[in-house]
Design goal:
The protein is mainly β and 149 residues long. It is built from 2 helices and 10 strands.
């Protein structure tokens, strides 16, 4: 009794899900509660949101309905762990403490605890991460999508 939600290229379906249910179904993802500061008028327009992780710029999903709250979505492999020497500008950046590292063979699966929020990260396999270490990360605006809450 299923319904066909969308047809498209595999990369598009995975990286730019039009609907929250598909984004959740097609792999591991982070969903963070968000307060909407500015929303675009059309799907994939830029939005500004405030989250428990800080301010983020993101893209409006196709299923977005005007609201003051939403959910920020991004894939773990699109999270960039920043070097201590990298200049930071605050936008789409946050920090937390490495809670767990599980090596999967192709990449470490990392849980970064940002207060009450666990953020899943897939790090480069050469990256050495230890539990308890403070890290800062960034997610590119084009890799973030806002869905209706």
């Amino acid at each position: 009794e299923g319904t066909l939600l969308e047809v498209g290229a595999p990369a598009d379906l995975y990286l730019r899900p039009a609907q929250k249910v598909r984004g959740d179904f097609l792999g591991t993802a982070n969903f963070i509660s968000a307060q909407i500061e500015r929303s675009g008028n059309q799907p994939w327009d830029e939005m500004s949101v405030t989250t428990p992780l800080g301010p983020f710029a993101a893209r409006r999903s196709e299923e977005w309905r005007p609201s003051t709250t939403g959910e920020l979505f991004f894939r773990p492999e699109l999270v960039e762990l920043l070097d201590e020497r990298v200049a930071r500008n605050g936008a789409n950046e946050s920090s937390g403490v490495v809670e767990r590292v599980t090596f999967l063979g192709t990449s470490p699966d990392v849980i970064v605890r940002c207060g009450e929020i666990p953020v899943r990260v897939r790090a480069h396999p050469s990256r050495v991460l230890q539990s308890g270490k403070q890290v800062t990360f960034r997610v590119a605006p084009e890799s973030c999508i806002v869905f209706s809450a």
